[in-house]
Known about the structure:
This protein is an alpha+beta fold. Helices cover 50% and strands 19% of the residues. It folds into two domains: 2-47; 52-162, Endonuclease, Chain A, CATH 3.40.960.10.
Amino acid sequence: MLNQILYYKTQDCGKTSAHPQVFPGIFREKISLIANMISMKRRKLRNNAWRKLPEAGQELEKILLSLNKGVLRGKFKTKWYVSGRLFDFFFPDIQLAILLDGSEGKSAYSRLQKVILENFCEDEWITLLYIKEEEIMYDRDKLIEKLRVGYRTAKKLLNSKIK
């Protein structure tokens, strides 16, 4: 099919480009095929077993869904990609990202990864919240307060971005 798309030289800039009007059906079909392949790849990534949350993440999801009689239901995504970065929980409306912070933060490499991720979030106006697994499992009051502070901070940052 790609061989059927004709190429021509444009008179004004001298560049070679595909002319979509020569075979409009084929051109649209190719774009549609590529879009379907991309969406299938994304769906496959979302359904992979490695995307399942650990025990602490599942507990945090239950807590988020039970806060204020489920007011956050449907407002967050689990294991969500933002510009190639994977977050455990992401609130797209207010740009709040939550990462479960385990014991992996000890090595120099993981500290460097954290700095890179924090710089990315700052550039993208994303509020990043680290939550330790111990807070989820053993200190629910402290966790809820941390979530509220993070939510309010993300809202303030979003409002300052809009203004």
